[in-house]
Amino acid sequence: MHDICLFRWALTEVLDRENDIDVSAATTRDATERVRAVRPDVCVVDAESPEPTGHSILRKISKLAKGKGPGKSPALLVLGSANRPGPLRRAFEAEALGYVDKEASPVQLTTGIRQVAAGKRFIDGSLGFGFLQAADIPLTRRELSVLSLAAEGSSVSEIAGVLHLSTGTVRNYMSAITRKTGARNRVDAIRISRGEGWL
Length: 199
Description:
The protein is of the alpha/beta class and 199 residues long. Helix content is 53%, strand content 9%. It is globular, with a radius of gyration of 17 Å.
């Protein structure tokens, strides 16, 4: 699942050349419906999706993979970057089975897909440092979710609606985020977190 059309098209073209891989592409917005319709063995998802719903797609696919949604349970393989530990951490918390560097070769991607389809874990070695950095992120998963939505321009009430929280709870999270990042305010917390690769 990827939201940049050219990149999604290129991935589809590369994977379509493999005799043992059938491809169905979708934007992040359409991903869960496509998964229910196609019932794939593996979902390849961009952990750094620019789509406003991208922060939650890993969670949605993960629920399908755990059997909390209708249809076949797909395994999750994410595309990520070592310099963006936040998305890697979110993918790990969503229990992704495979991790491939976005700068990897097509061979690395197809190998990862085949391994994950067989139920085996696959981690691109070049993402190792990103995983080490992910372990040091001071924000909790919920705080990262709140901050991700704030970075997309969502208001406190919009964040509360998406995450099913009260506005007071969202404000408490924002205060904790500001304190933990050493920021002056919400905008500064977003700037710091982006600079660290947490978002």
